[in-house]
Amino acid sequence: MATRVLVPAGVLGLGFDSAALARGIANNPDIIAIDGGSTDSGPFYLGTATSKYSRATTKSQWRELMQARAQANVPLVIGSCGTAGTDATVDWMYHITAEIGAESGQRVRVARVYSEQTVSALQAALQNGRLHALIPAPHLDNDALASCVHVVALAGAEQIGTALDSGADIVLAGRATDTATISALPLLRGEHPGAAWHGAKIAECGALCSTHPTSGVVQVEFDTNGFTVAPLAARARCTPHSVSAHMLYENSDPYILLEPGGHLDVSAAQYVALDDKQVRVTGSQWIPDSRYTVKLEGARIAGYQTTMLALLRDPRYVANAREWTARLHEFLLGEIRAGMALHAGEYTLEFRLIGMNAALGGLETIDALPAEVGVLAIITAASQETAAEIASLANPWLLHFPLTEDEELPTFAFPYSPAQTDRGPLYEFCLNHVLELDDPMSAFRLEVDEI
């Protein structure tokens, strides 16, 4: 007996083709699975336990998926709720779900899988030798763990499967691997484990495995020998190339994918086009590990930031923008040392030249000069007050600093007033470790409610 999984999009909040979703529901799926986030947008969302995506957009799209679930009468699962999968963002999704249920008259059983870890539990795991470093990994001790503001463990298929076994209509999971929500039901139903993990990897980003990536909706059918994947938008096609290539997406190895409890090996996989839309895949293997581990993600406050933006348009300053910012940087270090008694290790001041090398810095290879350059000053210090004070000191010089000592003061442009913006706390990722578990559920909590 095959298991059909409908994946509406790569992430909730990105949108999907409603007509394609309707085709998927008409195909009688066994489950609807979607991802809710990732670390792509940096540590801020984990550090603050907030969602990257608009609540209104999330609610609108989740309402459509809840209506589709009710029509198909199958479970609806989302992993990594609210971008980073903290307890707070799981509850954020729960409140959205409850609102929609009340407004639409739906009565549903909702399971919440919480992935957040306590510092005390992690300190005990470190002492017991159950925290293992990946490469590269920062130094880890009790103080480093205590500095974390939020730590989540990435749930796998076992935790999602436990939630499905509760009889839930809707599963709201905290941080989870991108594949876990898709692979869980096929594995519960005894489908080929290699196919379950491989098909989940291919479909994790929706139609990104097709020739029309923005269309969103894909369908994956798993069985005891392999899986078949097909996009459901009218103009989209899956090809052996588009499907096999997705193993390279956010993965360092084109053949191996690490997951909780083992790894997927697709080195012997065969990709066959069944027609101009569907691809059949066989030969994938799941290799269980001798121990069950889940990856940890942690964020901590690394300082506080203030930014300023000035615009250079004078052709001479544009042509010499790198030299100008280098001279300004050296000058300001002296002014900050003299005026504020701060030394280099107590703060950072950097300039990014927007239009020249803001993304790549010293790695930039294009030397063509733009018409104007944005000079972004980024100040990071131990407190917001210190960062703002440094910015205030630098403000007039960012507007008037000359290229050479023997010329009159120039005037540049600030695009807004006040020129400086306090960004608040700056977060950084601080863990690259796995947590060893005897029981896959021991680091997770499950709550089930009727709403």
Q: Would you tell me the overall average pLDDT?
A: 96
The largest β sheet comes out as: 10 strands, mixed
Structural class: alpha+beta
The tally of domains stands at 2
Over all CA atoms, what is the radius of gyration?
Answer: 25 Å
Strand content: 25-35%
Q: Percent range for helical residues?
A: 25-40%
- Could you name the ranges where pLDDT drops below 50 across 5 or more consecutive residues? none
Oligomer: single chain
Distance between the termini: 32 Å
Number of strands: 20
Number of helices: 13
Shape: globular
How are strands sequenced across the largest beta sheet? Answer: 12-13-9-8-1-2-3-7-4-20
Main traits of this protein?
Alpha-Beta Plaits; globular; 27% strand; ten-stranded mixed sheet; single chain; seven-stranded antiparallel sheet; alpha+beta; 451 residues
Model description:
It is built from 13 helices and 20 strands. With 451 residues, the chain is of the alpha+beta class. The protein folds into 2 domains: 3-115 and 154-289, no CATH class; 301-428, 2-Layer Sandwich (Alpha-Beta Plaits), CATH 3.30.70. The strands form 3 sheets. The protein has a 10-stranded mixed beta sheet with strand order 12-13-9-8-1-2-3-7-4-20, sandwiched between helices. Strands 5, 6, 15, 16, 17, 18 and 19 form a 7-stranded antiparallel beta sheet that branches. A 3-stranded antiparallel beta sheet has the order 10-11-14. Strand 8 (218-222) and strand 9 form a beta hairpin. The longest helix has 20 residues, at 321-340. The mean pLDDT is 96.
Which helices and strands, and how do they pair?
Elements: E1 3-7, H1 18-26, E2 31-35, H2 44-48, H3 55-72, E3 76-79, H4 87-104, E4 109-114, H5 119-127, E5 131-133, H6 142-146, E6 148-153, H7 157-165, E7 170-173, H8 180-188, H9 193-203, E8 218-222, E9 226-231, H10 240-245, E10 256-259, E11 262-265, E12 270-273, E13 279-282, E14 285-288, E15 292-312, H11 315-319, H12 321-340, E16 347-354, E17 373-381, H13 384-400, E18 420-429, E19 433-437, E20 445-450
Parallel strand pairs: 1-2, 2-3, 3-7, 4-7
Antiparallel strand pairs: 1-8, 4-20, 5-19, 6-15, 8-9, 9-13, 10-11, 11-14, 12-13, 15-17, 15-18, 15-19, 16-17
Helix pairs in contact: 1-3, 7-8, 8-9, 12-13
